[in-house]
Amino acid sequence: MSIKMFCRTLHIKCRDSTKPYLRSKVYRIPVKDDQVPWDSDFGECSYTPKDYTAKTIHGRPWADHEDPCIYTFNHVDGAGINRLSFHGVYSLDSKGRPRNPFGRTGLRGRGVLGRWGPNHAADAIVSRYIKGEDGRKMLQLVAIVRSDTEDLAIPGGMIDAGEDALEAAIREFHEEALSNNVLDDNLSSVWKNGKIVYQGYVDDPRNTDNSWMETSCFNFHDSTGNLFKDLNLKAGSDAKFAKWITVTNGLKLYASHSHLVKLFAKMHDMDID
Q1: Is the separation of the CB atoms in 191 and 218 below 8 Å?
Q2: Chunked in runs of 10, what are the mean pLDDT values of the chain (273 residues)?
Q3: Any idea which architecture 119-268 has in CATH?
Q4: Where are the domains of the chain?
Q5: What is the dihedral sign for C-alpha 95, 100, 104, 106?
Q6: Strands 51-53, 108-111: parallel, antiparallel or unpaired by DSSP?
Q7: What range(s) does the Nudix hydrolase domain occupy (predicted)?
């Protein structure tokens, strides 16, 4: 199965210096487009962003220790934590911290992310076709509204240590869009036929110079038109609500989810802006 990855385009959402970093009073320093690559000149001023790791993640069982030097990066470690990047080997800074393979973000540390380096997530695009009022087929997917940013988003979340990405995507969909962890046997044919939409780095507002999000996004499509007809959507976990939305031009979603939906739509022979 082929892996679709973003080319190394400039990240934008994780360089926003006009407002504080998530749930903090800390601001990123401005980083111009031509200053993003690590090997680029930062101009007359040296690159000295603030170092920020939220106190709320200190000591949490799913979070790394403050000292990055105790970890072996670019490997799956002994605890089953995947510290590999889809984009190859990443370098470390002078303090032994991973460096974001897509360049500077204007903020060091981990922010609100648990892991140094790649933080792996899984996203589930659950989709179907319905007939519109004019009789034409309309492509729909299940979306949630995030409770932290109130953005429309694809259901998904962090992959647990040792967990398979496909299993994580299914689990997260049940937690966020069905408000339970029980796998519905009636949907087993859909779950086992999940197709990769994308695997790799995502331009996420949580990203920093030393911690970043990478995702495995899967499409679970009901080709029969019947399996999802009576699907009882009910938001759970960190979602405010869940609903079916129609895939159209100009769909605005959280972080890089708009791009993921474009890739998904293309898989179904639909081009959207």
Answers
A1: no
A2: 52 96 96 94 87 96 96 95 97 97 98 98 96 89 91 95 95 87 70 94 96 98 85 86 94 92 96 90
A3: Alpha-Beta Complex (3.90)
A4: 119-268
A5: negative
A6: parallel
A7: 117-267
